[in-house]
Amino acid sequence: MAKKKEILRGAEIFCRALEDEGIKHLFGYPGGAVLHIYDALYKQDAIEHILVRHEQGATHAADGYARATGKPGVVLVTSGPGATNAVTGIATAFMDSIPLVVFTGQVATHMIGNDAFQEVDSIGITRPCVKHNFLVKDVKDLAATIKKAFYVATSGRPGPVVVDIPKDITADSCEYEYPQEVEMRSYRPVVKGHPGQIKKAAKLLLSAKKPMIYSGGGVLLSEASTELTEFSRLLGYPITNTLMGLGAFPATDKQFVGMLGMHGTYEANMGMHHCDVLIAIGARFDDRVTGDLEKFCPYAKIIQIDVDPSSIAKNVPVDVPIVGDVKHVLTDLISTLKNEKDKPDANALKEWWNQINEWKALDCLKFDRTTDVIKPQYVVEKLWELTKGDAFVTSDVGQHQMWAAQFYPFDKPRRWINSGGLGTMGFGLPAAMGVKLAYPDETVACISGEASLVMCIQELSTCLQYNTPIKILSLNNRYMGMVRQWQEFFYSSRYSHSYMEALPDFVKMAESYGHVGMRIEKSSDVEGAIKEALALKDRTVLMDFVTDQTENVYPMIAAGKGHHEMHLSSDVDRELA
Amino acid sequence: MRHILSLLLENEAGALSRVSGLFSARAYNIESLTVAPTEDPTISRMTVVTSGSDQIVEQIGKQLNKLVDVIKVVDLNEYRHIERELMLIKLTAQKEDRDEAKRMVEIFRGRIIDVTENTYTIEMTGTGEKLDAFIEALDDSMILEVVRSGVSGISRGDKAIQS
After folding, report:
1. How far apart are CA A546 and CA A478, in angstroms?
2. Closest approach of chain A CAs to the CA of B44, in angstroms?
3. Under DSSP, is residue B96 helix (H, G, I), strand (E, B) or coil?
4. Is A493 a residue whose pLDDT tops 60?
């Protein structure tokens, strides 16, 4: 006998659908349009609701959670300002292809379009920064729409999906059934790569004299780090990662030449410029990676693997395009390579490595270790040492983000969590909170700066309420460092509005939120402070490092320049000149 | 180069704005856009006329395909195809002008579909160029109103675009 289906209200269907989807955490903030849902949440215990202090914090926390776990992050906000506050976080996830499902409350169906209290066209506002969005117009569609939302968010090239639910829908009732499968005739992501193209790619790779592997965030999204590592080791070719792709290949491995792009290493960028065969794996040729497109990889034949056809040949023409999921394509590519009679040209490769090691010997990331004033790079390096390179590290946006990427070599995937595409200041703290909720036993550090940190500082309350003891390392140079750096280089040191005047006392601020605050002013105190903070396992600690105000991020490729036209550091530039 | 893209998409509220929003967000050209449901009321057929380099038009096709509501995108330029546009045009046609206007309509194979003492309303279909030519052939001062549908396109022969 068929099981009789339960009749549930929309708000209850919402909770049950999340439960059936296997969701454990929901980041949200209540308001009028979602009160029925909040009432239903009150009566269940399958899903833990995390009350943030601002909707931007909810989306970033869910985003950090998703980046660290690979599972979708889930958000619930109210209509109007709840939805608009969430937009920055949605756009952040969109640019980095992070799976989020964001539920926005909406005014009742009959009020839509009447400029009702807290009404905003959430579907319209979010349309350009979501993978897809849905307005639920009938309670009977609610469960199926939620299923579709999770399917779309997590499949193919992942991304945020918004589901807008009018208040009356959450009050209406219907039979509840959560669909097992989704079938959408208009949405069928490609998984397997074309065998002919894979064969071509293998042949081209084996013909290379100066090969480069350039991999990005797509490898992490596809859970293909193992395959990438096997592929790279099989060929023995140098590999560089984008900012989003760090950790996909072990950064302490000798085949790794560092991050590429605007603040990439000399060896990575020179390798790109001089290579004859380039394979791009889950990377999208972002302008911060390529520099001037006219000067990009002038000698290279290019292979590109991407699950999103529109990423292929968008900015740079590609010789061998392969549409497919990175994990599947790499698996097939590895077996194709193994079956080829030809092997990589050992002599050419040896010469190529000699050249790369020569570039490497320039030691482009060196910094002054003799000063008493704290060098920001030193702080990151110490954190790496003291966490044995095994922490989850989130960051905000700016100089500290680049130093984190340069000086914390990630050996494992999903440990490095930052807003690469949108470049959202304020991301780091809530994201760290989301990561800590997913992995309560792991060390979670947030490398930030005093300017970024205050953009979502209110989430320190959430950290206390839900006991997410994270370690915040604020590299406080009393400037918006990256803005200051550009103003120094390109605006004759006119530091227009980049100085952070009237900063708060960060130690007292941390304490007032119920956490531990530390102020560190001397280089010699850095190690002790980080040790002490890490030892406080059950406390959130805000370390306010008073760092060198004039330190710049090097190497640097200025806008309009090519990979071979890097500034190394003011000292080296002078030497080479 | 000018391209005619044919799309099949879900006949859902908001599908049109996803397409038009894509063109504005990515700064693609859009010359005309027409859309209406097909024989299957859950599917709409859209014809978009755009222009750009081969690389850009290829990107437009890929970006359109990426929209979750879009079922299929075909660049009609890759096929032998027919394009047609409908124009409704209202002219002043008084005494001495009426015969001349009628002759012009016949030459261009249009039809007069509404008549008043002072006006003719004409229906005409054809390529955009033909409609342009008709407008040019008229005395500007006669034209009261022009309504054009934008281009609809379909491939020639046995080939059919289906979901």
Report:
1. 8
2. 12
3. helix
4. yes
Q: Looking at CA atoms only, how far is residue B70 from chain A in angstroms?
A: 6
Q: What is the ipTM of this complex?
A: 0.92
Closest chain B residue to A149 measured between Cα atoms?
B68
Q: Which of A135, A186, A309 faces B68 most closely, judged by CB atoms?
A: A186
Q: Decide if A132 touches B, using CB distance below 8 A.
A: yes
In whole angstroms, how far apart are CA B86 and each of A379, A573, B108, B147?
69, 66, 13, 8
Report the alpha-carbon distance of residue A458 to residue A234 in Å, rounded. 48
Q: Which of A325, A290, A286 is nearest to A96 (CA)?
A: A286
Percent of chain A with pLDDT over 70: 98
Task: Assess contact for A173 and A139: CB atoms under 8 A.
Answer: yes
Contact B59 A314 (CB under 8 A): yes
Is A545 a catalytic site residue? Answer: no
Spatial separation of the C-alpha atoms in residues B143 and B93, rounded to whole Å: 9
Helix, strand, coil tally for chain B in percent (to 5): 35, 40, 25
Mean pLDDT of A167-176: 98
Task: Please give the model's pTM, rounded to 2 decimal places.
Answer: 0.96
Distance, in Å, from the CA atom of A59 to the CA atom of A492, rounded to the nearest integer, reads 38
From A160's Cα to the closest Cα of chain B, the distance in A is 13
Q: Pick from A135, A310, A317: which is nearest to B66 by CB?
A: A310
Asked if the Cβ–Cβ distance from B70 to A308 is below 8 Å, we say no
Interchain contact, B68 vs A152, CB within 8 Å = yes
Of the listed ranges A2-6, A56-60, A281-285, the one predicted with least confidence: A2-6
A183 part of contact set with chain B, CB < 8 Å = no
Contacts of A185 in chain B (CB under 8 A): 71, 163
What percent of chain A clears pLDDT 90, i.e. is strictly above it?
95
- Name the residue among A190, A188, A243, A184 with its Cα closest to residue A217: A243
The predicted model gives B51-67 an average pLDDT of 96
Query: What does the pLDDT look like over A533-565, one tens digit per residue?
Result: 999 999 999 999 999 999 999 999 988 899 999
Confidence class for position A3, pLDDT limits 50, 70, 90: low
CB distance B87 to B129 below 8 Å = no
- Helices then strands (H, E): number in chain B? 4, 8
Q: Are A133 and A163 in contact (CB under 8 A)?
A: yes
B33 close to B20: Cβ distance less than 8 angstroms: yes
Contact A308 B14 (CB under 8 A): no
